[in-house]
């Protein structure tokens, strides 16, 4: 593809637009932009357009999640905010297998996971880490 494109939005299917709108705006602090119609709204999350669209019946894939990057202190602040709001952390891929704020042994990465009202997993993290995974030299992309 020769045309340059920029990733601009995510459209998240939800079971109840009113419940999800309340969660993302009042609990997570996303900014309300406008309704496109009675079952679809646009929010803004740090300059990124985030659409919620009511689309029952809803099937949430257990591997789907999206991440919010912040600082290490920001992850801990987020954990305190979630606790105050009564939003529990959930088990993510941290090696402890517990729903907790996890810090890697080297102290580089801090991460937590929680779910929205439909069960979509949201990750809050301080750093992806440049030393994780690998680059496949045979992949010609």
Supply the CATH superfamily name of the largest domain: 2,3-Dihydroxybiphenyl 1,2-Dioxygenase, domain 1
Percent of residues in helices comes to 10-25%
> What number of domains?
2
Number of H- or I-type helical stretches: 2
Mean pLDDT: 91
The total beta strand count reads 8
- Whole-Å distance between the termini? 12 Å
Summarize the structure.
This protein has helices at 17-27, 72-85, and strands spanning 9-14, 31-37, 40-45, 48-54, 65-69, 102-103, 110-115, 121-125. By secondary structure, it is α/β, with parallel strands linked by helices. It has two domains: 8-59, 2,3-Dihydroxybiphenyl 1,2-Dioxygenase, domain 1 (Roll), CATH 3.10.180; 62-132, 2,3-Dihydroxybiphenyl 1,2-Dioxygenase, domain 1 (Roll).
Can you walk through the features of this model?
The chain is an alpha/beta fold and 141 residues long. It is built from 2 helices and 8 strands; from the N terminus they run βαββββαβββ. The chain has 2 domains: 52 residues, 2,3-Dihydroxybiphenyl 1,2-Dioxygenase, domain 1; 71 residues, 2,3-Dihydroxybiphenyl 1,2-Dioxygenase, domain 1 (Roll). Helices cover 18% and strands 31% of the residues. The protein has a 4-stranded mixed β-sheet with strand order 1-4-3-2, with helices on one face. It has a 4-stranded mixed β-sheet with strand order 5-8-7-6. The longest helix has 14 residues. The chain is globular, with a radius of gyration of 17 Å. The two termini are 12 Å apart. The model has no long low-confidence stretch (mean pLDDT 91).
């Amino acid at each position: 593809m020769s045309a340059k494109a920029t990733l601009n939005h995510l459209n998240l299917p939800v079971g109840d637009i009113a419940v999800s709108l309340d969660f993302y705006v009042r609990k997570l602090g996303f900014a309300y932009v406008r309704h496109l119609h009675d079952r679809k709204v646009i929010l803004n999350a740090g300059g990124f357009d985030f659409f919620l669209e009511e689309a029952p019946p809803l099937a949430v894939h257990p591997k789907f999640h999206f991440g919010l990057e912040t600082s290490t202190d920001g992850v801990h602040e987020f954990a305190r905010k979630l606790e105050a709001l009564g939003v529990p952390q959930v088990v993510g891929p941290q090696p402890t297998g517990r729903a907790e704020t996890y810090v890697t042994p080297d102290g580089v990465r801090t991460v937590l996971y929680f779910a929205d009202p439909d069960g979509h997993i949201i990750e809050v993290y301080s750093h992806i880490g440049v030393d994780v995974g690998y680059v496949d030299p045979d992949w010609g992309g």
